[in-house]
Amino acid sequence: MKGRSAVVTGTGGLGFECALALSRAGADVTIAGRNPAKGWDALSRIKHDAPEARVHFEALDLASFASVEQFGSRLCKEKESVDILINNAGVMMPPTRKLTEDGFELQLGTNYLGHFALTGHLLPALRKSNQPRVISVSSIAARQGKINFDDLQSEKSYSAIRAYGQSKLACLMFALELQRRSEANGWGISSIAAHPGISRTELLANGPGRMSPIGIISNAMGFLFQPAVQGALPLLFAATSLMAQGGSYHGPDRMGETRGYPAAAKVSQKANDATSAVRLWEVSEGLTNVAF
Ligand SMILES: NC(=O)c1ccc[n+]([C@@H]2O[C@H](COP(=O)([O-])OP(=O)(O)OC[C@H]3O[C@@H](n4cnc5c(N)ncnc54)[C@H](OP(=O)(O)O)[C@@H]3O)[C@@H](O)[C@H]2O)c1
């Protein structure tokens, strides 16, 4: 990875593991997150493990389009090119409906719209790379997801799990549509999706909480969780392997894609629906005010 520059969103969990692995492999890594203290902590842990690491922290709040735009324009000025963008950061199932700074449902806004806008802002830097890759992190939850165009922001009725599934399905549809647009427009970007199966991170604690019904069930079924370092493998495979092609989707290979080593993941019919993907893209351009 020497000579490759990578941007990873998320300072903890899978984002940290991706940043650590890419740094160890010699990439120039930017960790982007909303909490500077966690960012500095991630840097010091990486440098402790890999003293030669070329790793930096930049402030980015995906729940604020202003922050995403500032980050994008800073990076486009500072960097000659961005070779790898891992759209990873996310929130899962806050029990009550919460909003981003711009008034969008928090999960759709952070997991999907924030990364949609980020990718659009970084497009000039990505296009300067000779083999750029954009990795979108989806989830097994995307299988149950549905894009509810009549109530995208869950205003009429909020279900934490439905809104999470919708946001993760949107990430997967975005990955596939970005690949189609990259091919049609000659952007040269390989857009690849990945998911980590079920991995032990802070996602539950940061969302519904460890004492919520799903938190208690998860504690009892802790054996189902694989370590974050292993959950990061499909993301890293998508970001670095010559075998990962644009438009592909990768996840763990065992027990219904919940654990194991990187393999082709199943793309549902809904995720493959190119007509809905175009509609979602156009709606997203309108909501974010970012055009590619
Ligand atoms: N863990 C799993 O089993 C699993 C399964 C399927 C998919 N995923 C996906 O994997 C991705 C990473 O999650 P994780 O498991 O590593 O969870 P995590 O440990 O909770 O990490 C999520 C990261 O996202 C960051 N983040 C949240 N909101 C943000 C915002 N507005 N702006 C910038 N950063 C923000 C968090 O920052 P703070 O530390 O500041 O909160 C944290 O660093 C997510 O997209 C998730 O949907 C995870």
Give an overview in words:
With 292 residues, this protein is an alpha/beta fold. Helix content is 43%, strand content 16%. The protein contains ten helices and ten strands. It has helices spanning 13-24, 36-49, 65-78, 106-127, 160-185, 203-206, 213-220, 228-231, 233-240, 274-288; strands at residues 5-9, 28-33, 54-59, 84-87, 133-137, 190-194, 199-200, 226-227, 249-254, 259-264. It has an eight-stranded mixed β-sheet with strand order 3-2-1-4-5-6-9-10, with helices on both faces. α4 packs parallel to α5 (160-185), α4 crosses α10 (274-288) and α5 (160-185) crosses α10 (274-288). The protein starts with a strand and ends with a helix.
Radius of gyration: 17 Å
Uncertain regions: pLDDT < 50 for 5+ in a row? Answer: none
Shape assignment: globular
Distance between the termini: 27 Å
Tally of individual helices: 10
Helix fraction bin: 40-55%
- The pLDDT mean sits at 97
How many strand elements?
10
Structural class: alpha/beta
Strand order, largest beta sheet: 3-2-1-4-5-6-9-10
The multimeric state of the shown protein is single chain
